[in-house]
Amino acid sequence: MNEFEDLAARLRAFAAARDWEQFHTPKNLAMALAGEAGELVAELQWLTEEQIREQVGGGELRQRVSDEVADVLLYLVRFADVCGIDPLRAALDKIDRNEERYPAALAKGSATKYDQL
Amino acid sequence: MNEFEDLAARLRAFAAARDWEQFHTPKNLAMALAGEAGELVAELQWLTEEQIREQVGGGELRQRVSDEVADVLLYLVRFADVCGIDPLRAALDKIDRNEERYPAALAKGSATKYDQL
Amino acid sequence: MNEFEDLAARLRAFAAARDWEQFHTPKNLAMALAGEAGELVAELQWLTEEQIREQVGGGELRQRVSDEVADVLLYLVRFADVCGIDPLRAALDKIDRNEERYPAALAKGSATKYDQL
Amino acid sequence: MNEFEDLAARLRAFAAARDWEQFHTPKNLAMALAGEAGELVAELQWLTEEQIREQVGGGELRQRVSDEVADVLLYLVRFADVCGIDPLRAALDKIDRNEERYPAALAKGSATKYDQL
């Protein structure tokens, strides 16, 4: 079992033990994921990039950002599992596709979207 | 190397080859993550839970949802890497903490937040 | 002055009095808006539509949802003002365009996106 | 009727004419709002604040950002209406409360949250 399957199994057991499967529908989990992405963004919104780089190495900001990263990941894994989707496979396929869409020679140094290259 | 470190390494190489590290600041990556979480939610917003369960097993909806899961995961891994955070460690620590905050006996069948249990 | 201009003026004064213009950049305000949209979604994610309809008429849920509606609106108005965009004008133009894209005869009862009608 | 009530009435008529009330539940509308907030953030994520200030005054970026501001506002007004919440009243109450929570003398030049002042 890889780490993703391992997390999915722990989350399945966690939800089952608490009779929470009733709440873990695709829509609810997608909403929870969006909520946590919002919390992650909120931790950084008033800081400058310099302040973030200085503070994210340790201390309070690191803990809070770490927690939000965890929350996003946990809901993402749970969402994918409930939908029968393999998130690792999906991510690897997407990197492959991005490598084709954004050939290094064309895309270098530019954030232009692939359909405008 | 576990799958998370593997994804992080591929994304590091992907960004370096395209001279994209300049765009991959913590704030920009957090914004990209929130944007993709929004795209995931948008795929489901007009569907009922029943329609989602029927359609997410295969076909167009599965592909689009899979792509959004991938996009969220890729930005999450890249964000964590740029901040020097281990997303797997963070997630495992968070499940442990959630198990303490939501003891099965107290939390069973209820979505009440831990500070109200 | 219409209500939107009125809110924008109050928010301008509020930020100036606290020397907060430095934080109110377009990107920061867009992040704050996404964060508040996340908080709104989080208030509803574990509730069923029936529970929401029963509870949103008054009491705690109403107050919390009201607050999140307010937060989203305030950041939206502030963001638009900082970018020199008229949100009311933009919204009215968008409804007009949506009326053309989704002619009632074609769009009735279907959530299909306009480019698939 | 103020501008908010006017927008709400137009959106009510728009939805009724297309038999779309079935889709406009509180959860669906909150999801749509989060999706549009994500689209707004996505328009800005790779740009620097300087690039945004240069480009948002006119041209393509202005149009796209304007459209996203419109989409967020329209879903917010529709969501509030479906929940029986007055968004203008909520926003005015919130500014009042923020003025108490963040007295200018204490809050000047600092983004510290009110419970830490």
TrEMBL record, chains A, B, C, D:
GO MF terms, alphabetically ordered: dCTP diphosphatase activity
One of the record's GO cellular component terms: cytosol
Biological process according to GO: dCTP catabolic process; DNA protection
CDD domains attached to this UniProt entry: NTP-PPase_RS21-C6_like (cd11537)
PANTHER family: DCTP PYROPHOSPHATASE 1
Record-given protein name: Nucleotide pyrophosphohydrolase
Natural source organism: Kutzneria albida DSM 43870
